[in-house]
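Input.
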Amino acid sequence: MGIGEVLGLIAVGAVIGVLARVVMPGRQSLSVLATVVLGVLGTLVGYWAADRLLTGSGGTIVGLRWIIGVAAAILLTFVYETFLHRSVN
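Output.
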C-alpha cells in the first residue's frame, strides 16, 4: 500500500466518519481524530463487506461500499460512545 492509497483511505475515512456522525441521532463527544479513525475503520469494513457480498458478480458497487462503510462507522461510534468513552460525573 503506497502513500497515496493511505492518504486516500484517510480522506475517505474522514468523510465516512463525518457522515456517520451526521446520520447518528443525538450528540456525540468525539474528537476529530476519533471521528477520522472510526471513519477509516468503517471504510475498511465497508470495502471488505462489499467485496465479499459481490464476489463473482464481476465487480463491486462503489455506493454499496459507502453505505456499508457509513453503517459500520455508525456502529463503531455507538460502541465507542457507549463502552469506551464514558464520561466521569
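The two ends are 43 Å apart (CA to CA).
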